[in-house]
Amino acid sequence: MSRNIKVEVNSIRLDETSETPILLLLDPSSQKVLPIWIGTIEAVSIAYAQEGILHDRPQTHDLLIDIVDALDGNINEVNISNIDNDTYFANLILKNGNGLVTLSARPSDAIAIALRLNIPVTVNEDLFETHSIDLIVDSSNEIEEFKEFIQDVKPEDFS
Fold first, then answer.
1. How many domains does the chain have?
2. I need a surface site. Which of 29, 46, 78, 105 has the fewest CB within 10 A?
3. Distance between CA 77 and CA 111 in Å, rounded?
4. Cβ atoms of 136 and 19 closer than 8 Å
5. Going by C-beta distance under 8 Å and a sequence separation of 6 or more, which residues neighbour residue 25?
6. pLDDT score, position 2
7. Is the confidence at residue 156, as pLDDT, over 70?
8. b/e map of 38-65 (b: 16 or more CB within 10 Å)?
9. Between β-strands 21-27 and 133-134, what pairing exists: parallel, antiparallel or unpaired?
10. Quick count: other Cβ atoms within 10 Å of Cβ 107?
11. What is the mean pLDDT of the segment spanning 6-25?
12. What is the CATH number of the domain that holds 110?
């Protein structure tokens, strides 16, 4: 049986050809990253969570956390569990009065929640070993460019 390894949300970068955000999950022990292409809206939500930006009204990920809390549950862990046809799958591991509950989620949504709750993010070890790459430190201003992109994004950009 495969085990899970704990990873850190390293950064969000932009794919140079498609300008699609790429979430990088880092295994600190190997300095390898698992790249996961994600949507722009989810990238913005993850970036807000990383920066600690709070909104006056709950955003979708905040609402889900509030619902679980109102039902006396806790989200304990996010696990990136599988890949099929280049699509990653994740699970939210919840605990409620009946025990552990596993809910399927998109990795980007699950990680946006994990960052808000400061809970562990794990990846199936075999999956990580098969799909991870060496971390390349880029001295360009990619992260700053993405932060600027987030500042200028408007809701109508997504319609």
1. 1
2. 29
3. 10
4. no
5. 7, 8, 9, 10, 33, 34, 36, 80, 111, 121, 123
6. 74
7. no
8. bebbbbbbbbbbeeeeeeeeebebbebb
9. unpaired
10. 27
11. 92
12. 3.10.690.10
Convert the pLDDT of each residue in 85-136 to its tens digit: 999 999 999 999 899 999 999 999 999 999 999 999 999 999 999 999 988 6
The per-residue pLDDT for 137 is: 63
Q: 33 is written with which tokens?
A: 């990253």
CA distance 103 to 45: 20
* Structure token pair of residue 107: 């990795």
- The domain in which residue 26 lies consists of 4-158
52, 59, 63 from 68: Cα distances, Å? 21, 14, 9
pTM over 0.85: no
